Every structure is written in C-alpha cells, then in structure tokens.
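Hi all, a correction to my earlier message: I attached the wrong file for NADP oxidoreductase coenzyme F420-dependent. Here's the right sequence:
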Amino acid sequence: MKLGILGAGKVGRTLGEQFERTGYEVLYGTRTEREGTLTLQEVASTSDVLLLCTPFAAAVDLLPTLDGLDGKVLIDVTNPIAIEFNEVERPDGVSGAEYLQRLIPDTKVVKAFNQTGVENLGDPNGSVMFVAGEDEEAVRLVVELSNKIGFDTHPLHGLKLARELEGLAWLWIHHAVKERKSRDFAFYLTER
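and the right structure:
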C-alpha cells in the first residue's frame, strides 16, 4: 500500500517516517517542489491512502482542486484552530473533518493523528489515538495503521465525533502551550 502525505512539514514528515519504518512506501507532496517531494496532485493521484497534513485553511482551498480522490481514504490530521489561537473553530457549525467531507463527498474522510503533538507522533509509546469516520472499512484501516506505529488506537463510529477529537486536540495544545509550557506529555487510556 502506498501512503501519500499531503503537506510535508514537521507533522507530515514525522508521520511519513513512522510509516516508512513499518515498511510502507510513502510519497510526500508539497505546494512547491523540493528535493524528495512530488506535487500534491501527483501524490493524490498515485497514493492508495492519503494523510492530510496541511493547515486546515490550506486544506479547504486544496482538496477541491485535486483529481483522483474519489473512493480513497483521506486521513484528516488537521485542526481548525482560530487565527487568534484561542479555540477550535466550527466552520458552518460542524467539525473541520465534516466540513472537508462536504468538499469531497466521494472520498472517505477519517479523522486521526490530530489529537496530540508531533513529539508523540514520532514516539507514540502506547499513548491513545482515536479514529472517527463514517466508512467502517476505512476506520478499520486507519486503526490498523495507527496501531502499527505504536498508538493504543480506538475506533469511533461517525465522523461527527471529529468535533470531540478536535476539542481533544485543542485541550492538548492549550495544556502544552498555555498551561504547562512544555510538550513532553501524552494522553493514555486505562481500562479498569
């Protein structure tokens, strides 16, 4: 399976390297070509599964311009954080993932890898990761990918739950940046 990273910044590169270590072929796409990357369209056309690692606003502009997304799984790693950096925005009253799904209705959007910092993406160490989506097969696939790189992964049924996952992401960000002033923590789920 070929994984495509749309947006090869720190988050995209970190996830891509994790998947490369577990044996996947990973393609990196950027707006401007640089060494080791393809165009975003080339990655969208040739990958089996896509990870959306751009800023949310850039994703809104990008996704409708890409051909070849129909029927594919698109893992939404974005968070629609307000420009004032004080809350999660709700475009049209829905989660960012639901909003993106409306833009590309024939693509299977699944929310994952957005609820923690890049440090934990690079070293999950069994921390928790939730996966939300409408298509059960797509959710199962993303759960499998998440488990392979070291997360304790739990599926959630319904993309509307991406609202809560984006809220959980904001909690992590707020705690790391505004309260703790340190990013060296992760969330864990303990069963009793």
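Sorry for the mix-up. Residues 2-179 form a domain with the Rossmann fold fold (CATH 3.40.50.720).
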